[in-house]
Design a protein that fits this description.
The chain is mainly alpha-helical. Helix content is 72%, strand content 0%. Helix 2 runs antiparallel to helix 14, helix 5 packs parallel to helix 6 and helix 6 crosses helix 7.
């Protein structure tokens, strides 16, 4: 075995045996969350293989078919579309919503607030007062305001949820930077002439990765729930997009005659949000030694 072949294996072995990974593996709820998140990702990637029909194809003569009848595993909706196929393809949309919304939140809530927190003074005070104003609104209300200005659509819903999450990252990063900017490695970088931008992005922010990763994992669940709420209100994904919140909105009209139209998309949202929350909590306990994990 050559040195190049053994090195990746040794790195993978050290990672697998690291204290943080051992703490995570011993946490049963965290492993359950990992299994649920992994299953969601696999379903999203394999949607064309798992879905027996086009999620947009209608068969009006088979509308509101009961689950298990006429080849419909979860039944069909009011237009005769296969509900299982729509739920499966909805996993792609919800996962994309969560990831892009969190990415937008990272872009809004990290670079400029991080520089402001490092410089301090009136710049930091002004930035934090803006963050305080945004945090005074409930996240879903702020998202509704943004999407109402931009117009109802799936893309605008992602932007709205990302904007609502930006202040959360700003507050998190500011707290970490204030605790790190007087550390010895920052003083050393300043002494050799590294400018503020270099100190923040090359020396301080890499030390913020653990809390950022943990917060991002938890906020993916929040983003999926918020985006589904916007779609339920008619401000997010528009028909005939197979998005879980939009499916709930349509299905509520048939609660008495076809409750399965809301049951299965609702369960998909619950399982997805629960999985990311369990996974995020497990990461927090594994990566933060103050949580008491051993």
């Amino acid at each position: 075995m050559t040195e190049f072949q053994s090195q990746p294996r040794s790195l993978a072995r050290r990672f697998w045996r690291s204290p943080a990974v051992r703490r995570f593996r011993r946490n049963r709820t965290a492993m359950l969350g990992l299994a649920m998140v992994s299953s969601l990702i696999l379903v999203a990637l394999a949607a064309p293989l798992l879905a027996p029909a086009d999620p947009l194809e209608s068969e009006l003569q088979k509308s509101l078919t009961l689950p298990g009848m006429d080849g419909f595993l979860l039944g069909s909706d009011e237009l005769g579309r296969d509900l299982w196929s729509r739920v499966v393809y909805g996993s792609r949309i919800s996962l994309t919503l969560g990831l892009i919304s969190v990415g937008i939140g990272l872009l809004i809530g990290i670079p400029l607030p991080a520089l402001a927190a490092y410089r301090g003074g009136w710049v930091d005070s002004l930035a934090m007062r803006c963050v305080d104003i945004l945090l005074s609104f409930p996240a879903i209300l702020l998202a509704i305001i943004v999407v109402s200005v931009l117009g109802p659509s799936l893309n605008n819903a992602m932007i709205a949820v990302g904007v609502a999450q930006g202040p959360i990252y700003a507050r998190l990063v500011r707290g970490v930077i204030l605790s790190l900017k007087q550390r010895e490695f920052v003083e050393a970088a300043r002494a050799i002439g590294v400018n503020d931008r270099g100190i923040v992005f090359r020396h301080i922010l890499p030390n913020c990765l653990s809390p950022i990763i943990i917060q991002s994992t938890l906020l993916i669940a929040s983003a999926i729930l918020s985006a589904s709420s916007l779609s339920f209100l008619g401000l997010g994904a528009q028909p005939p997009t197979p998005e879980w919140g939009a499916m709930l909105s349509k299905g509520r009209l048939y609660l008495r005659t076809a409750p399965f139209l809301t049951t299965f998309p609702g369960l998909a949202i619950v399982i997805t949000v629960l999985g990311f929350n369990l996974f995020g909590d497990g990461l927090r306990e594994a990566l933060d030694p103050r949580m008491g994990g051993r």
